[in-house]
Amino acid sequence: MSEQRVKGFINSIPWRFFKRITLSQILLTTIIILVTAFSARYFLKVYITNQSINQVTESLELIKHSITTQKIDPIAWCKSLKLNWATRYTLIDLNGKVLCDNYLDSTKLDNHLYRPEVQSALKKGIGTSKRYSESAEIDMIYGAMKFKTDKSYIIRQAVPLKQVSIAMRTLDRSIIIFFIPLLLFTSLLSLWTSLQVSFPLRSLIKKISNLENLKLTPKGLESAMAIDDEWHLVERTLDRAEVELANYIEELQFENKKFSILMESISDAILAIDIHENVLFINKRFQKSFLNERESNSKSAKGLKLVEVSRKKEVHELLRETIKDRTSSKVRNIEIEMSDRTEKGWFDISTSPLIADDGQILGAICTFRNISHKKLAQQMREDFVTNVSHEVRTPLTAMKGYVQILLGMKELTENPTVKESLSKIEHNSNRLAILFQEILNLSMIESRHKLDLVKSSTQDITQNVLMNLKQVHKNSNRKIHCDYSAKEVLVDSSLIEQVLTNLIDNSYKYANQDGESFIKWEQNESSFTLLVEDNGPGIEAIHQKRIFERFYRVDSSRSRSLGGTGLGLSIVKHIVQKHKGTISVYSNDLGGVSFKIIIPSV
């Protein structure tokens, strides 16, 4: 192992905690071993002693039985015993006088009446005790038994505890022999277990020190560890983290409250769902608009599914497409049933994906802008325009008829003043009729909610328009150049014909009569382009931004003289928007103006 790895290993150990736990384990195991050894020694000594006492008792029972059954003289039997260093017998009368002893001279022995074993034998017939014998100068076990032949005696047997002492010394040597290796083994085991416990602690300290707002520099870490051990550092850091977490939760709750107030203050209805179409959030405006009182109070927002809060198929499809494509979308003029189920409202709907920082799609959010009042106002305006247009066209038609009758009267037309006046009346009647027809057309286009989209030939659309315009402008020598790069387009052909008619008609009216116009159809990946250009006088940049406004004219006097109403380009713009397309105008290199229309293919 290299020096660097050794140094890294040493530095990875939390020494303060490691020393504490290691010393604690070694001390604990040493105490356990010592307690176990001394307990074993004690219980072994007690066991051997009890065995010796039982042997003494059994021996006395056997001697008593032999003397009493064989009617042996106890004194003679005692004197017949040889000196035996392993067992001592003493014959005592009931007054405690020693009559015979095979180990010592009985005449030199004092009275044994108050020996514990003798007292117990006098009371119970048998008694034992263990004590140090001053006469024999050794620890001995004494047993005494009362018996009767021609008169009563007490026979006492004493056994030295040499065997117990020998066994204890042997056990002590065994304990010493096994204690040192066992202590060494347990110490090594304690070191190993301490290392296993300490390594995760060091890793935990590193992770805790890297907590946001709790990061400690190496110098700060060492100073903290100089005061406390590693666990104290962990505890103190966690206490700080707990305070920081409590502050963060309080701040988060405050921010959440502000967010809720903000969401509720928005006048639009808001709905948010996850990728499984579970409702994440609905504001009060949504509940009030689309949920009845029972549905609003039955569940919390998080317990609802999309189909429970919205029964509009278009809304479901719009949200699903937003989640699938991860793109925002907007749909206008959607009719949705309101909360009381008795009326319907009109809404502009916008959807946006909910995307996490790592790019994962979380769901989608949908806003409903109520335009019912605008829709009502628009409908009233459209109805007003339609009714007025119809009402005005009838008297205009009658007026034109009467003027034509008057112009056919020779006696009136001979007067130049009358003839000129009647011609002006006819001309202005025609202008009014065209104006109201254009207004009616614009109103009809705005009120159309669904287009009749079919695949149409670009050449057929163009030729139909040019054929009609050549009949109107028979005296014009304008050349029309066509390019059909896109063969077919998905459009409402009648409306697109109207677009092309208005644009080419303007070229006939306002450009040079001997000039040129260019019509170009192009197919792109997801759209097609219609480009209409001419080499006429063009339109100044200051007017290009406003030419799509209603009744706006670049040159009012010229437009009126040519029969213009100021609604043609406004109609063009509305038709393009109905196809979800865009139109732009700019000056071209030919000196004229170019109109560029881009319409999605689907």
Topology of this structure?
Elements: H1 3-11, H2 15-70, H3 74-79, E1 88-92, E2 98-101, H4 116-124, E3 126-133, E4 138-148, E5 152-160, H5 162-209, H6 218-227, H7 230-265, E6 269-274, E7 279-282, H8 284-290, H9 293-298, H10 306-309, H11 313-325, E8 329-337, E9 344-355, E10 361-370, H12 372-407, H13 410-413, H14 416-447, E11 454-457, H15 458-472, E12 479-484, E13 488-491, H16 493-510, E14 516-523, E15 527-534, H17 541-544, H18 556-561, H19 568-578, E16 582-587, E17 593-600
Helix pairs in contact: 2-5, 5-7, 12-14, 14-19, 15-16, 16-19
Identify the notable features of this structure and list them briefly:
5-stranded antiparallel sheet; rod-shaped
Based on secondary structure, the structural category is alpha+beta
Describe the strand arrangement of the main beta sheet, using strand numbers: 2-1-5-4-3
Query: What is the overall shape?
Result: rod-shaped
Largest sheet: 5 strands, antiparallel
The beta-strand count equals: 17
| Strand residue percentage | 15-25%
Alpha-carbon distance between the two ends: 71 Å
Radius of gyration: 60 Å
Mean pLDDT: 77
